Amino acid sequence: xxMSQQSPSPSADRRLSVLARHLELSSSATVExxxxxxxxxxxxxxxxxxxxxxxxxxxxxxxxxxxxxxDSSPMKLNLGVGAYRTEEGKPLVLNVVRQAEQLLVNDRxxxxxxxxxxxxxxxxxxxxKLILGADSPAIQExxxxxxxxxxxxxxxxxxxxxxxxxxxxxxxxxxxxxxxxHPKVFTLAGLSVKSYRYYDPATRGLNFQGLLEDLGSAPSxxxxxxxxxxxxxxxxxxxxxxxxxxxxxxRSRGLLPFFDSAYQGFASGSLDTDAQSVRMxxxxxxxxxxxxxxxxxxxxxxxxVGALSIVCRNADVAxxxxxxxxxxxxxxxxxxxxxxxxxVATILKDRNMYHEWTLELKxxxxxxxxxxxxxxxxxxxxxxxxxxxxxxxxxGMFTFTGLNSEQVAFMTKEYHIYMTSxxxxxxxxxxxxxxxxxxxAIHAAVARAR
Length: 450
Fold this sequence. Notes:
This protein is an alpha/beta fold. The chain is built from 16 helices and 13 strands.
């Protein structure tokens, strides 16, 4: 027999077996050792690669609702939320929105394919007409490019990033005060944020002279953020004559207007009235940016439906601007969602549904106006110190009460009323039933301070 072909002896088998186990254990130990050493490993003990992160403060507006939800008092009242509520304090879905959704559900030809980067074409066309006017020369001359965005916030962000990349002035002036998210949106987009005087605490109205002085001294070409109507948080708007003075000053200084239109139709109850400021700037042939939101005026808060329109000098520029807007949107969220935009387009292009929408919209605006009057009357009936006429002079969802942070804290502690610390209240959160409770709280807070 050839020795090379003989089977290994039992002792050789044992040696090979021991060696194999040794190599297996060494390999396993090496792998385990390398896993333990990796910071992201599940075997790394209690340490996290994110251990250094500190807890961020709550959003000052959304944090109000969080605190409200934790309160077990039956008397509690949330006046911080920027959403419409019925007389019963419930969220409202418009009848016309339900009708539009039913039509969409019943349409078996509808599919769930991606929209284009710029969004739903019908929605964009109809949104531009809604804010600029159906007979707008800018639309007729194809000088407007409109892209669907993620509600008002997304529209502002896309516009801001476009300006940061392509506009020669990277400074934007925002009113003082303004919506708390504005500074963050513009700063993170790459713009330098400065402010111009807007609100006068002494009169609880517009500081028009300060506004003109600040915009008059702004560098030529700077961007200026303007609230189209129902200024948030103050509820103070310029008059038409004041808007005209603002327009003339801005055009003479070459300042670029960027309108935030979050409340069209929701302020006065008229879609055209609430769009006047924007249309004045478009009518002079100059360039304008407009961010639109359908959160408030169609109650589509969670659908995140908005649009950014840029009015340009001519059709060729508008086409090139749109091509660059696509490059902003594509890496940000690729393309917008289809459902909410389809609801809006369905309503806007049907004459009967559009008419029903305007009626429901006016009913919401009128209820808020009634709440203003009732609160003013209740404070006057209680003899609450001070002049509260600003409550009925201001417009839109919010009122800047003039209450300070200490008074607000007192009302929260003693009356379970929740609002932002600057004294802003959402009139939409009030009802005929809760107005007396708020009036009692305001009266106690003001009288206590005296």
